[in-house]
Amino acid sequence: MDIDILHYLQPFVHYSLHFLVPGLLSFLFFRKQWKRAWLIMIATMLVDLDHLLATPIFAADRCSIGFHPLHSYYAIAVYFLLLFFPKTRIVAVGLLFHMLTDWQDCQWP
Known about the structure:
Number of strands: 0
Oligomer: single chain
Helix content: 55-70%
Shape: globular
Number of domains: 1
Strand content: under 5%
Largest sheet: none
Mean pLDDT: 94
Low-confidence stretches: none
């Protein structure tokens, strides 16, 4: 695939995964409260505030996973544990899907 196309495709995929797929996950797994679940999952993007601790704050070629504190493997383990508690399950799904989205970003050439 042409590298110029990938340059435009990567952010499109990234932000679609951050905003649209949580809506689908909310509808599939939290149907009775899917709108609330979607908003909570979107709110988990606040985890990106840890980018403010980095210099530079944004680097297009930097992989967030394992670099930023709230994107560390320890943090991801905590997010996984949150799945086991009903009151934190929606937040956990949002955070874990956020990490998956950021991880897939690291796989692009």
